[in-house]
Amino acid sequence: MSDYLIEANLIGGAWRDATGEKIEVTNPATGAVLGHVPSFGASETEEAITAAADAFPGWAATDLGTRVGHLRRLHQALMDNQEALAALLTAEQGKPLAEARGEIAIGAAYVLWFAEEIRRLKGEIVPAPVNGRRLLVTHHPVGVVAAITPWNFPSSMLARKLGPALAAGCTTVVKPASLTPYSALAWGRLAEEAGFPPGVVNIVTGSAREIGGAIMSDPRVRKVTFTGSTEVGKTLIRQSADTVKKVSMELGGNAPFIVFDDADLDRAVEGAMIAKYRNSGQTCVCANRIYVQSGIHDSFVARLTEATKALKVGDGTEPGVEQGPLVDRSAFDKVTDLVADAVSHGAEVATGGGAHTLGGTWFEPTVLTGITPAMKIAREEIFGPVSAIVRFEDEAEAIEAANDTEFGLAAYAYTQNVARIFRLTETLNYGLIGINEGLITTVEAPFGGLKESGLGKEGGSQGLSDYLDSKYTCIGGL
Ligand code: ADP
What we know:
The chain has 15 helices and 22 strands. The chain is α/β, with parallel strands linked by helices.
């Protein structure tokens, strides 16, 4: 782990130690201080942008084969160091080691995917309306890209942004979440090991407002790619207007998980467990509202409650642990508040409901029934290990309720009725839909939300095009 626990920032190929204030990074499971990273601000961010802008022409003009080679080595470096990187991720974020290993692997897979995708990028020669002309459509890297990432997937969220940016020929300035900076800083070392030239990847830790302000006001930054809360995303979209930056936004969700009477019960329970409790409920695609049709309601609740009680809670480094702590006290307080609000409005606790006996920021894996739309838990992203169950009678009612939110990231449904499956793909107003599957993220498919859940896609071929500008050239007089 120690090789990749780096306390400095990477700016223009130089590792820079803190000169003034520092950010303390702690392990959410033990409270132990892992170390400190610089609390840099606007001036270091400007230096990083300058480094990225200076490196851009050279990197954009680098042979495709060379660029692909760097990306393939980056993928290999991630996989060769999977154990060390996973240990670092668990230490700063709290997720079970098995999940951390999975996050490193999917991050590596994104890098490899974009190394492959860039080789298949095609321009076009489109028919001209008159003879003597050729109309070319070509694709070009957008330029300097700023990537702002969250604490829940500090490594793989960066992979989805750095992968396509570097493949496309862009250079980057990364601002990781202050709770989990080490997983991002490790990417700086990995990029060096893979041979990326200085200035292509720059990483700055510190004040979100100052770093964000410098990024958003600088005309040299041509694109901002952000994963985080809808509130901050909206601020960044507003700030992007002044210099007309491209934006990719992966924002909050409020995923419905609908279980119809005709569902395969075993599969539905298994899917709900993974869609709800992965990363202790701290993912933007976590099942937030679980709608269960009347005929299957009681047996589903009984089975889900049994499986929830059986979850092994503890420090993510212990063998077999499935539920780590919440990332910090404010995350814990928010979940506590949502559960208290639901219970005060009539929700019933089938299991859990409060602080875990382990103390710290562990919250008991919880199942609540009798959830109604009036409760805050039905409207806000829970980001904790709480299953909130709503009973429903018919399909139309479930779809209307599922769509009754400003969010539109992920939705899940369990049914064996093929006609209904096709209806759901049309009526569920969500960017990602899992039918009889609770874990659907994959590098091959576009990940992205509708409505206030975001703009743009990550993964798939769309994930690359978001980092490219197209140009049309008309050649006349032929
Ligand atoms: P979360 O609630 O998941 O922590 P946030 O949206 O608060 O999500 O944070 C996601 C990332 O955005 C973090 O890296 C955070 O430091 C950064 N961030 C927060 N506020 C701003 C801002 N005003 N400008 C730029 N980045 C910000």
